[in-house]
Design goal:
AB hydrolase-1 domain-containing protein, alpha/beta, 39% helix, AB_hydrolase_1, AB_hydrolase_fold, eight-stranded mixed sheet
Length: 369
């Protein structure tokens, strides 16, 4: 009986061979799982590095306090604003000013009190979304900011028409105003406006000449913002190689005349407000929108004032190392209704030069060249 049982057992085990131990099988499976686990952990680590922290929204727990006047927009967001010049009710001319990159509502056009009084100029500046005390706008586009401006003007009862002016990234916004709200405008001033290298209509030689003005690290930063916007936060915060020189305030991007103006920027007591919600919703999203994929090009625009009811002025420094002048030159050639003012020795910061803001405003309001 015992012999028969042994034979049956041997037959059951495949002719007397012992079955593999379960512990050995488990070890093999674990070994095969290790590369997959490492890949998952690496992906999780990379994903975490690519994700920007949530913004510190003004007036919410953990966010900066609200200290400024604000309006509420139709979608529930708030815009913080600052008024200067003569009182709104007494003004003969009302100008809305758009600040540039890494700035806020207090970085307005420095019009002299004397000229403001003489011409009756009211100046309204505001924090663009994600800057200062204006709520962030994750869905921000080149169109949405123009509509924000229109709502701001209506909320403060600026009237049917008003002037707009913008510097640098704020200057680029002027093209959006000309496309989406031209019927609300009395005149426009673009000051050293950022140009998007991928707008349709630029000849290859103009594109290449403008592209080569930039330092190498900015070519990379701008290219990432356009081609891989999801990498923008990581690109500008990693430490392996230089990211945007503008964010880092690299002296190499400032011209000789810019260097003489920089001390004015160093003494701004409110400078930290620009990034107080975090760099992603202010600086990085600014780059993603400004250098993003637009569905239209300023070179396609038609004259917004065909009956001479207003003028468009474009000012640019020939020695601008931050925003290449070549794009502005070409746009002004293509759009004959743009009055182009090129300053032969100026850099990017020319609106802050002594007396320059008054020259710009007089040209905008009175038509002086």
């Amino acid at each position: 009986m015992a012999v028969a049982d042994s034979g049956e057992q041997a037959s059951a085990n495949g002719g007397g061979k012992a079955a593999p131990a379960k512990s050995s099988n488990s070890g093999g499976m674990a070994a095969k799982s290790l590369p997959r686990l490492a890949l998952v952990l690496l992906a999780a680590l990379l994903y975490g590095q690519l994700q920007a922290p949530p913004p510190k929204v003004p007036g919410t727990p953990g966010g900066p306090p609200v200290t400024s006047s604000r309006i509420e927009l139709n979608d529930g967001r708030h815009l913080a604003y600052h008024e200067s010049g003569v009182p709104r009710e007494q003004a003969r001319h009302k100008i809305i000013f758009m600040h540039g990159f890494d700035s806020c509502r207090y970085d307005s056009l420095p019009v002299s009190p004397a000229l403001a009084q003489e011409l009756g100029v009211y100046l309204l500046s505001f924090d663009r979304p994600g800057y200062g005390e204006s709520d962030p706008h994750p869905g921000r586009t080149e169109r949405s900011i123009a509509l924000d401006i229109e709502q701001l003007a209506d909320a403060l009862e600026l009237g049917r028409r008003f002037y707009v002016a913008g510097f640098s990234m704020g200057g680029e916004v002027m093209w959006s105003c000309l496309r989406y709200i031209p019927h609300r405008l009395s005149g426009v001033a673009l000051l050293g406006p950022v140009g998007n290298f991928w707008w349709s209509g630029f000849p290859g030689d103009v594109y290449r000449e403008a592209w080569d003005v930039q330092v190498a690290q900015d070519k990379w930063a701008v290219g990432v913002a356009h081609h891989a916007p999801w990498l923008t936060y990581w690109w500008n915060t990693q430490k392996m190689f230089p990211a945007s020189s503008v964010i880092a305030f690299n002296p190499a991007i400032f011209s000789r005349e810019d260097m003489a103006i920089i001390p004015k920027l160093a003494n701004r007591p409110y400078a930290q407000q620009a990034r107080q919600q975090g760099e992603y919703e202010s600086l990085h999203r600014d780059m993603m929108v400004g250098f993003g994929k637009w569905s239209w090009s300023p070179l396609e625009l038609e004259d917004p004032f065909p009956n001479g009811e207003g003028k468009v002025h474009l000012w640019h420094g020939a020695d601008d190392l931050i925003v290449p002048v070549q794009l502005s030159r070409y746009i002004s050639e293509r759009l004959p209704w743009v009055r182009y003012h090129e300053l032969p020795t100026a850099g990017h910061l020319f609106p802050l030069a002594d007396g320059m803001a008054d020259v710009i405003v007089k040209s905008l309001l009175l038509g002086d060249d």
